[in-house]
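idk why but the lab printer keeps eating my pages so im just putting this in chat instead. protein + acetyl coenzyme *A:
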Amino acid sequence: MKILGSGHYVPKNIVTNDDLSKIVDTNDEWISSRTGISTRYISSGEGVSDLASKAALLALEDANISASEIDMILVATMTPDSMLPNNASIIQKNIGAINATCFDINAACSGFLFALNTAHAYLSSGMCKTILIIGAETLSKIVDWTDRSSCVLFGDGAGAMVVTADDSKSFYSVSGSDGSKGHVLTGGSTLLKNMLVNKEETNILTDNYYMHMDGQEVFKFAVTKVPECINKVLEKASLTADDIDYYILHQANVRIISSVAKRLGVSPEKLPVNLNKYGNTSAATIPILFDELRKDGTLDNAKYIVFSGFGGGLTWGASLIEL
Ligand code: ACO
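predcted complex ->
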């Protein structure tokens, strides 16, 4: 699999830490020192499929191909505009990718990574030739803006990547899930509630629409699982941590990223960070960061990069790709 192009798009509305201190009891010093985040972009009026369509058009332009050459669109999101139609189909209509098969994938912050692995499987089986993969979120609609421990962490945005089949390029992946720890990160639940169901039976999961997170549990999980799965993918590829030019990690917390660098024994410069600007945009963090590094020339001489994501589910993974 080869990456042909990438693009990203974030909404115009910047929200600073000081802005947040006007709505919850927090301050810039706490947010910056605990997370590394200074600003995030919050959508006003644009849905996930709007952000994603703009990122997709930039990726197509970068790849220098037309929308009709795309034979699949995979959208990783946990904040779709609608369940029906799926967001990939809305984006197909927006960008005119008339030959694409379209579906969404939800694996929270690991979503883009799982979509990348899915794209690789379709390409290596010969079922597709060129795939558009998008990670896009409007987390602002499920964030509890009264909960200071979580609302300061998240932002909205979209990143896109065009990949094509290429046997000459190496690709290795490792991924996993642990549903027994699902309670650590929850949100977006829907009730089984209709006129045929008694009120007492209106059940289901929990009445839990807004995101709720046990931050410390997620932190502990991330700092152990991420290095573990990166080491596994390196082993699969018979490469060492030093052979990798850049590790493009899910951008959740700068302290998680520093801890992973330390555990891998590599210089922190190999783990670029942009969460100071965007916050955690869940499935969009990896493709946004990749696009920035590609466009500013950082990846010009890079041969191997590792993507690694972790998040709700719980889910995690690492994929190694030769550029
Ligand atoms: N401003 C000021 N004080 C705050 C804030 C805030 N925004 N949030 C919490 N505090 C307070 C707490 O109330 C607590 O006060 P207390 O000691 O009086 O009780 C104190 O700060 C410490 O709180 P902790 O939760 O212990 O802070 P911690 O150092 O663990 O940092 C954080 C919290 C930043 C959330 C950290 O745990 C973290 O980054 N975890 C990982 C989160 C993550 O990666 N999430 C993304 C998952 S991916 C996905 O799928 C969405």
